[in-house]
Write a structure and sequence with these properties.
By secondary structure, this protein is an all-alpha fold. It has one domain. It has seven helices and no strands. The chain has helices spanning 4-13, 16-23, 27-54, 63-89, 105-119, 124-129, 139-165. Helix 3 runs antiparallel to helix 4, helix 3 (27-54) runs antiparallel to helix 7 and helix 5 runs antiparallel to helix 7 (139-165). The longest helix is centred in the N-terminal third of the chain and has 28 residues, at 27-54.
Length: 166
């Protein structure tokens, strides 16, 4: 009996766009380069804010202003990463279905946790110092910054492993 996932993978495989990416000499590598650069843009802008929360970077810059300035670049990286990731998945959806060794759901789980941490306000002590340029980062925001850095590292590692293990 054919599973729903297999049927869906077959339909994706048969799409003209999937075939174009699969057959092109340059399209897949170009998508992969844009995908990696998008990851760098997304994770880099988040890392800058996280390092500021930890107190290791830009101590003279208010966290709120830094976050506000980097947010458009962060979203650009996120959108490019998702779009190119889906386009990289299209040519070979059959081989990308979950296996016991490495499930694509791992990066998705990490992504949801990381986005939740990015979109929810930092701890209450952080809100008191957001406007103060030289205030040291309090313990709670520093822990949030460390957790965020670790989570984004997990997203990058597990996401890149999909291409090599699945």
């Amino acid at each position: 009996m054919t599973s729903l996932v297999s049927v869906f993978a077959e339909r994706l495989y048969d799409l003209p766009l999937s075939e174009a990416i699969r057959e092109s000499l340059y399209l897949f590598p170009a998508l992969n380069v844009v995908h990696v650069l998008a990851i760098v843009l997304l994770a880099g802008t988040i890392a800058i804010v996280d390092l500021r929360l930890i107190g290791l970077a830009l101590p003279e810059v208010p966290i709120s202003g830094l976050s506000r300035q980097l947010l458009p670049l962060t979203w650009l990286g996120a959108v490019l990463m998702v779009v190119t990731g889906l386009l990289l998945f299209l040519p070979w959806p059959r081989g990308s279905t979950p296996t016991p060794r490495c499930r694509p759901s791992w990066p998705c789980w990490c992504w949801r946790r990381a986005m939740r941490s990015c979109l929810t306000p930092r701890a209450a002590p952080a809100r008191r110092v957001l406007g103060h340029a030289r205030a040291p980062a309090p313990a709670c925001p520093a822990l949030a910054g460390i957790a965020s850095l670790l989570l984004w590292a997990a997203i990058i590692v597990t996401g890149r492993l999909i291409a090599f293990i699945v």
